[in-house]
Design goal:
about 180 residues; alpha+beta
């Protein structure tokens, strides 16, 4: 009951799937992308910028760039994880506010891990494609972090709990109309 009553702080509309050709500066959108090049850039003192250059499924425009910052005592292990996860040809969804840089490339600076979701890897969601789908392509609840449990993990946990409940386990309190 406590888990079901733990309400999200907000919802993000990640249903707006667009192609690169339709992307506009400062637009918040989800793109279904394929990795072309992914690599870390060391910037000193256990800090890295991980960059992924990607194109959409129909190659409708120039490649886009997704970057995120990695730091801390485990930064090297995290970089290794992302290097293995974002290999050439990997499909993923990236969500956020896209910015056009000086060279005319659309860039996304990722601030939260759940702004990107790998689609073509069994390790992405423990082999359950339904779990990948709960993070993108729809209106997504965003929860506050609880201790070591990240918002994405909480969303997955709630999905599993609700999937295991029978239809009559929770009484509907909204009128039918």
């Amino acid at each position: 009951e406590d888990l079901l009553l733990y309400l999200p702080v907000r919802h993000e509309d990640r249903s707006s799937m667009v192609e690169i050709r339709d992307l506009r500066n400062d637009q918040e959108a989800s793109l279904n992308l394929t990795v072309r090049i992914a690599k870390p850039r060391y910037i000193g003192r256990s800090r890295f910028i991980f960059s992924v250059s990607a194109s959409d499924q129909n190659n409708t425009g120039p490649q886009v760039l997704i970057e995120w910052f990695i730091s801390g005592p485990r930064a090297k292990q995290i970089v290794e994880f992302y290097t293995k996860r974002f290999v050439r040809g990997t499909r993923f969804i990236a969500f956020g506010r896209w910015q056009l840089d000086k060279l005319g490339t659309f860039c996304l600076k990722v601030n939260k891990p759940d702004e990107r979701e790998v689609l073509s890897s069994d390790e992405a969601s423990d082999g359950d494609p339904a779990l990948s789908a709960i993070h993108v392509g729809r209106c997504v609840p965003v929860y506050r972090r609880i201790g070591d449990i990240r918002p994405k993990q909480l969303r997955e946990l709630l999905y599993r709990v609700l999937a295991d409940l029978s239809d009559d386990a929770i009484k509907e309190n909204l009128p039918t109309d």
